[in-house]
């Protein structure tokens, strides 16, 4: 069904990506200073998805991408696609599934594999 995945950038600001049902990133948001701003924008997008506009571009390298606009505000930028058909499929995935997508939060600095690391160290 797709998911919004919240994480941190290297500069400690927050961002989110929307991933397809297969786990591929479709678009990446702008940066947010605070996590709750990021989460609020996801919820706002899910509720107002019918107002979303997709501005399509072809980059200098020949790849396609879109800028996602919510109203008049630049909301996110897509990944690069090799064909216009794949770009259109990415947009279709957003339109069909984003309003029902879950939000996954990977923004904490804690390791999700911490127990395994401790166990490996104990075995050594």
Automatic annotation (TrEMBL):
This is DUF1508 domain-containing protein. It comes from the Bacteria. The lineage of its organism: Bacteria, Pseudomonadati, Bacteroidota, Flavobacteriia, Flavobacteriales. It comes from Flavobacterium limi.
């Amino acid at each position: 069904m797709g998911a919004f995945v919240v994480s941190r950038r290297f500069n400690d600001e927050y961002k989110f990506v929307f991933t397809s049902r297969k786990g591929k990133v479709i678009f990446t948001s702008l940066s947010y200073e605070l996590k709750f701003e990021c989460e609020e924008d996801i919820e706002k997008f899910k509720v107002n998805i019918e107002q979303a506009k997709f501005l399509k571009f072809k980059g200098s390298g020949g790849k396609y991408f879109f800028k996602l606009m919510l109203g008049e505000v630049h909301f996110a930028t897509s990944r690069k696609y090799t064909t216009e058909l794949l770009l259109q499929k990415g947009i279709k995935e957003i339109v069909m599934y984003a309003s029902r997508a879950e939000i996954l939060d990977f923004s904490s600095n804690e390791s999700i594999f911490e127990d395994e690391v401790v166990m490996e160290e104990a075995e050594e």
